[in-house]
Design a protein that fits this description.
Number of helices of chain B: 2
Structural class of chain B: mainly alpha
Number of helices of chain C: 6
Order of helices and strands of chain B: HH
Chains: A mainly alpha (about 220), B mainly alpha (about 70), C mainly alpha (about 220)
Strand content of chain C: under 5%
Helix content of chain B: over 70%
Shape of chain C: globular
Largest interface: B-C, 32 and 41 residues
Oligomer: heterotrimer
Structural class of chain C: mainly alpha
Largest sheet of chain C: none
Radius of gyration of chain C: 20 Å
């Protein structure tokens, strides 16, 4: 149980820092809204089109925004003395991964809580009746995104050109998450007459479980000195 | 003549002969077929030749360290 | 990297001969396909290229696991070699797929599950090679590359299933036609040829990797 307690300590610390400084949250929300705006300009004034692709646009916005915050996952430890500080944490290194993972998930979900209604307004899609389903898709997708993202962020933290390497490594790996989230969201918004969304939710859930196991298992190797 | 130049010449000649042949038998979509086989051989030959070039360059670099009295 | 060893010479000669025979049969000897015509001949290079690409990345996966278990850099060298050759075969597969697709379907690209997964595979292993190029320390490079090699490969079946669902949720699966024996034999022949090419390139590339390791060591001593 102490792994979880240590992980929780890390989450708590990071979220406290975030709550006090709001450095990431504000920037992420603003950036995400900007991305949605730009998509609207790019696709033109056809509101029917926008409504149809709103699921895809939403998740592209979430992905780009998420990448922003991912690259700074370990920044608190970096600036105060390098990853050596992280490795000096007593006990299982996996607690670090769990802690950072939970922090990323919470932060991204908070951003989505603002972003999804904003998307509903911008793309004139009526979201409220589907709120619960959208929440489920949102959670499963965010977990998948954060699982691989937190892991690769640790891998690239010491790399030259890591701003490029993180997206380069991350996006091909996230294809199942993107496909699952976009398709599930679009189906939910369309009313899903044939209950296809369940297939995609299963894809998301399987991805989450498989990669949770893999990433937690291999994380100590990623952080070896 | 250097080996790579010979290979390139043989490759080009073979490609031309192939093009003439598919023209003679009036193969439909012949440009795609010739392009496909041409690209296949071209890419594989190019990579094999590149490997040789890189091998020579690296061997030279390793040897230069010995001459300079460094290493080991 | 000269002179070539006996094994390399034999492998190289065998690869060259079988490739020549395979292409000759595929282009001139085997009769054209009843449905697709002569463009179908591209299958004899496209399918083996795809097979070998996948095989190459499977080897990367196995070597990555072996490296993480035994920490012997020789496994990592084989992984790096296989990844590089795999990228070449994958790019070739995509190019040939497009050349086959344009006359058959009328478009250069479709979001067909296999083509899409192959493109993602290319992205994964280009990322693998890029990661290797940014790590100077031999041990770190091998460790990180092994991790990416394992995760990348583990993702491939999931990606393939997702893309297949994405494209075929409303379409019934196409029924496989029975394949004429001459077509099957020609395919097998070219598959053997491509496998020999892979083996030859691997032997050469691993040798190069060993040389590069030598060079790194000497440059480190002299730094």
């Amino acid at each position: 149980m102490s792994v979880f307690r240590r992980a929780w300590a890390i989450v708590w610390k990071d979220l406290l820092i975030e709550a006090r400084t709001k450095q990431s949250f504000n920037a992420m929300v603003f950036f995400a809204a900007l991305v949605l705006f730009i998509f609207s300009f790019a696709l033109g004034p056809d509101t029917e089109l926008l409504r149809r692709v709103s699921g895809g646009l939403l998740w592209v916005g979430i992905a780009f925004t998420g990448i922003l915050s991912l690259s700074r996952t370990y920044q608190n430890e970096e600036t105060s003395g390098g990853l050596e500080g992280l490795r000096a944490y007593p006990g299982d290194v996996r607690a670090i991964y769990l802690g950072k993972l939970m922090g990323n998930i919470v932060l991204l979900l908070l951003v989505e809580a603002v972003l999804i209604p904003a998307a509903g307004i911008l793309f004139q899609a009526d979201l409220w009746p589907h709120a619960l389903d959208l929440a489920v898709v949102s959670i499963l997708g965010t977990i998948g995104f954060s699982l691989v993202g937190t892991f690769y962020a640790a891998l690239t933290v010491n790399l030259r050109a890591r701003e490029v390497m993180l997206p380069l490594l991350l996006f091909p790996a996230l294809v199942p998450v993107l496909l699952g989230a976009v398709n599930a969201t679009t189906l939910v918004l369309e009313g899903d007459p044939m209950s296809e969304a369940a297939v995609w939710l299963r894809v998301l859930a399987s991805f989450d479980i498989i990669f949770f196991v893999i990433c937690i298992w291999i994380f100590p190797i990623a952080l070896e000195e | 003549m250097r080996k790579s130049s010979l290979v390139i010449i043989v490759y080009a000649v073979a490609l031309i002969l192939l093009w003439v042949y598919v023209g003679r038998v009036e193969m439909e979509n012949r440009s795609f077929v010739v392009a496909g086989y041409g690209v296949t051989w071209g890419v594989l030959l190019w990579y094999a030749l590149r490997l040789e070039g890189r091998g020579r360059a690296t061997a030279r670099a390793v040897a230069s360290f010995e001459v300079a009295g460094g290493g080991k | 990297m000269e002179p070539k060893t006996g094994v390399e010479r034999i492998l190289g000669a065998a690869a060259l001969v079988t490739m020549l025979v395979g292409s000759a049969v595929g282009l001139f000897l085997v009769p054209q396909d009843a449905a697709q015509g002569n463009v179908q001949r591209l299958m004899y290079v496209h399918v083996p290229a795809a097979w070998l690409a996948f095989m190459a990345f499977f080897i990367v996966f196995v070597m990555s696991v072996l490296y993480l278990i035994q920490r012997d850099v020789r496994w990592d060298r084989v992984a790096a070699a296989s990844a590089e050759i795999g990228v070449v075969f994958t790019a070739l597969t995509l190019l040939l797929g497009m050349m086959w697709g344009k006359p058959t379907w009328g478009v250069w690209w479709t979001w067909d599950p296999r083509l899409t997964t192959t493109a993602i595979l290319l992205a994964i292993y280009v990322g693998y090679l890029a990661l290797r190029s940014f790590a100077d320390d031999e041990e770190k490079r091998a460790r990180w590359a092994s991790i990416v090699g394992i995760i990348g490969f583990a993702n491939v079946p999931i990606v393939y299933m997702s893309v297949t669902w994405w494209r075929t949720l409303h379409q019934p699966p196409s029924s496989p036609r029975s394949v004429a024996p001459e077509i099957l034999w020609t395919l097998m022949l070219n598959l053997a040829a491509f496998t020999l090419v892979y083996a030859y390139l691997m032997v050469r590339r691993v040798r190069l990797a060993r040389l590069e390791g030598e060079l790194e060591k000497r440059m480190a001593y002299n730094a």
